[in-house]
Amino acid sequence: MKNSKIILVSYAVFFALLTYFAVSLSDAVLSMRAIDLADYMLAGFLPLKNIAGTVIAVATTWFLWAYRQGTYRSQLDEVIEELKKVTTPTKDETRVTTISVFVFVGIMIVVFFVLDLIWANVMLLIY
Prior knowledge:
The chain has helices at 4-30, 48-67, 71-84, 91-126; strands at residues 41-42, 46-47. By secondary structure, the protein is mainly alpha-helical. Strands 1-2 form a two-stranded antiparallel ribbon. Helix 1 (4-30) runs antiparallel to helix 2 (48-67). The chain is elongated.
């Protein structure tokens, strides 16, 4: 693994996002009971929804990290290698592209204006 730090950070970000959504899911599921268990405190200060959401996030992240024989890690490594090949355009390339887009848009404005005039006159003749 060439990009182990990037992969580790991406899994950490994935874990943080997954924890947020898993806690929301746990809150929704645990609140459906006749007795609202979502805000039930464990050890006096930890809501049950936070513990359940963290457990879901840990299990999912661990499954993706370890269980699949590194399949996801190798695919993520390949994605990072491909992203390193991406280059940004130079100022000259950006300028030429911008000018060509403006010219094309100007030409199309004229073409649609002329077509609209022609169509309007054809409609006046028909009606």
